[in-house]
């Protein structure tokens, strides 16, 4: 081989950019992406059913319920779980890590590139789905600004879940199961307990961002109880902080952690 | 006498556990420039050693340096290192050229240079015709050569190859051996593992024998042979009177056992040098003709068996 160019001195960006590009390509083509797209069509269909059978009044109740329950309680955690755990575990399962982690770039650059690609892919799926749902529900009596608040809640909750589940996947190859247990077991359970404890869940802050919704006041009151929702600024801060802390800790941990595959001598 | 070479890899009391299972046990070894064969049966600890040296794993105890640097998660060292892991599954969804190019891009090479290097590396291992083939569609031998290509593509100073010849047909194996020799002649240091001894024999005379996580022997083949001389050696004596010859040898102190195989006498001696020295006189004195003399233990396989099995 001719060595016409001097060997490069790769930096953080050298690891980040190719990882981001490849992460985006694989996130969109993998099976779970396709499954998610199918699942994401469900809320639009629910709202369409409400529009066809109940009229504008029913639509005013259905849309907030769909955003609260289907998006924030189900789709956002599941998207965060699937895409977040995939950042490391997909490559671990495919036997790619020995190649990726012996490159002359910081491991954190590879993980950050892949994490942001996963976030972008998941966000695109959710935004597209929510936009279609809101379009189908246009004219619903839910108060002004609800679509914007719903979009904000989804877009701030997603990075928090995704980063938390990516962080979890550094510790265990069973992160998908553990994350599922957290999102649909523990968090749901904690959210039911009256008092301050529900403030330790991500869903509390995600729901707080929806603010007052004319059609679903009863549902929100039942959820927030006497404590009421967090202020939008606090809710956004907690969700963003969780996302940043999660990805920061993941990068720090990956830098010093070895990933022993099942096959070894 | 081999000339002293600067150490490329230095392991001191290196150990590695997987839970309760020992992968490497108190290994102290020095690997110098040139090609070194890491030889041992399956499960001996070869891959564990390479994974620690490549910086993929931490040692559980002891220390290792490569080109003077601690390897784990060390981008400065990884600039100078090419690594071909053992596993046969990797980047299934990528085409051969995209795979090599992606890893070059992750090594900081600009896009056009990465493409050029990827194509050259694939051509060098005879895989230029497969550069648009997805890895999942490649045969094991093709994937093996593509793995070697990615390790060579960045022109590293040190190359770590874990069982690189596994799955290759004889022609590809010969070509790969020649390729590695050419690279070594250009000054690159290569540590290559194998459990097939004749593969290593055809690559290098410098070996590191490993078994059950321990280094059984290390050095040039000649040095290993010196070691073997301290072990019992089997000698096959062919002639018309094997039983008479056996009766003359049975009382020798250095003869540990005698046996017959296909009309030949098999002698196991603990002092081959003395045995070979005394044999001609003994044969002449008793008028015993000998039509053949050989030692099945002169091959590396025998050296290996002796040293790892005791």
Q: TL;DR of this structure?
A:
The complex is a heterodimer of chains A (265) and B (310). Chain A is mostly helical and 265 residues long.
In words, what does this structure look like?
The complex is a heterodimer of chains A (265) and B (310). Chain A has 265 residues and is mainly α. Chain A has one domain (12-256). Chain A has nine helices and no strands. In chain A, helix 2 (31-93) packs antiparallel against helix 4, helix 2 (31-93) crosses helix 6 and helix 4 runs antiparallel to helix 5 (146-171). The two termini of chain A are 33 Å apart. Chain B is of the alpha/beta class and 310 residues long. Chain B folds into two domains: 7-227, 3-Layer(aba) Sandwich (Rossmann fold); 230-309, Alpha-Beta Plaits. In chain B, a hairpin with a 2-residue loop joins strand 8 and strand 9. In chain B, 43% of the residues are buried. The chains are: A mainly alpha (265), B alpha/beta (310). Chains A and B meet through helix 1 and helix 3 of A and helix 1, helix 2, helix 3 and helix 4 of B.
What distinguishing features does this structure have?
heterodimer, A: 265 residues, mainly alpha, B: 310 residues, alpha/beta, Rossmann fold, Alpha-Beta Plaits, 2 domains, six-stranded mixed beta sheet, four-stranded antiparallel beta sheet, elongated
Topology:
The complex is a heterodimer of chains A (about 260) and B (about 300).
Chain A (H helix, E strand, L loop, with lengths): L11 H18 L1 H63 L3 H4 L6 H30 L9 H26 L3 H18 L9 H7 L8 H8 L7 H25 L9
Chain B lengths: L6 E12 L2 E12 L2 E5 L6 H8 L7 E6 L8 H4 L2 E4 L11 H11 L4 H14 L15 H13 L5 E5 L7 H16 L3 E6 L2 H5 L4 E6 L2 E7 H9 L3 E6 L3 H8 L5 E7 L2 E6 L2 H15 L5 E3 L5 H10 L1
Parallel strand pairs in B: 3-7, 3-8, 5-6, 6-7
Antiparallel strand pairs in B: 1-2, 1-4, 8-9, 10-12, 10-13, 11-12
The appropriate CATH architecture of the largest domain in chain B is 3-Layer(aba) Sandwich
Q: Report the span from N to C terminus of chain B.
A: 26 Å
The coarse silhouette of chain A is: globular
SSE order of chain B, as H and E? Answer: EEEHEHEHHHEHEHEEHEHEEHEH
CATH homologous superfamily caption of the largest domain in chain B = P-loop containing nucleotide triphosphate hydrolases
By DSSP, the count of extended strands of chain A is 0
Which chains make the largest contact? A-B, 40 and 50 residues
Shape, principal axes of CA atoms of chain B: elongated
Strand content of chain B: 25-35%
When the domains of chain A are counted, the total is 1
Helical element count of chain A? 9
Oligomer: heterodimer
How much is the radius of gyration of chain A in Å? 20 Å
Major sheet attributes of chain B? 6 strands, mixed
Overall mean confidence score, pLDDT of chain A: 85
CATH class of the largest domain in chain B: Alpha Beta
N→C terminal distance of chain A? 33 Å
**Number of E-type strands of chain B:** 13
What share of residues are in beta strands of chain A? under 5%
